[in-house]
Design goal:
This protein has 127 residues and is mostly beta strands. It has strands at residues 3-7, 10-13, 18-25, 33-39, 46-51, 58-60, 68-72, 78-83, 92-99, 114-115, 121-126. It is built from no helices and eleven strands. The strands form two sheets. Strands 2, 4, 5, 6, 9, 10 and 11 form a seven-stranded mixed β-sheet that branches. The protein starts with a strand and ends with a strand.
Length: 127
């Protein structure tokens, strides 16, 4: 099955850190812009970052800018979302997905262009 597989979620105290992984299954990150998204309970899915396949640059949502960063794995089929200074409002299910229409990120991020959604990984930040 072609999908992005997320892992690394868990329970962490406010101010702590987590590293999430997004692994490509059945496709290659080099072919698509890759986005990270999250959905908090009772809220709409929010885009938090996008990494362009053209130059590896990443755009971040204002809600996570300065706290979250993206890095690539050595094998280049894994992206990591490093989350620092976590807040209770970061509690959500986190997803990654590929933009089937573009290799370069758009601003704003167009969620309807994304596919290969995984099952997500739960992040819970306690106060």
């Amino acid at each position: 099955e072609v999908q992005a597989v997320e892992s690394g979620g868990g329970l962490v105290q406010a101010g702590g850190s987590l590293r999430l992984s997004c692994t490509a299954s059945g496709f290659t990150f080099d072919d698509y812009a890759i986005g990270w998204f999250r959905r908090a309970s009772g809220k709409e899915r929010e885009e938090i970052s996008c990494t362009s396949a053209t130059d590896g640059s990443t755009d971040y949502a204002n809600s996570v800018k300065g706290r979250f960063t993206i890095s690539s794995g050595i094998a280049k089929n894994t992206l990591y979302l490093h989350m620092n200074s976590l807040k209770p409002e970061d509690t959500a299910v986190y997803y990654c997905a590929a933009n089937l229409m573009r290799r370069r990120c758009t601003s704003p991020i167009l969620q309807h262009e994304y596919a290969f959604w995984g099952q997500g990984t739960q992040v819970t930040v306690s106060s």
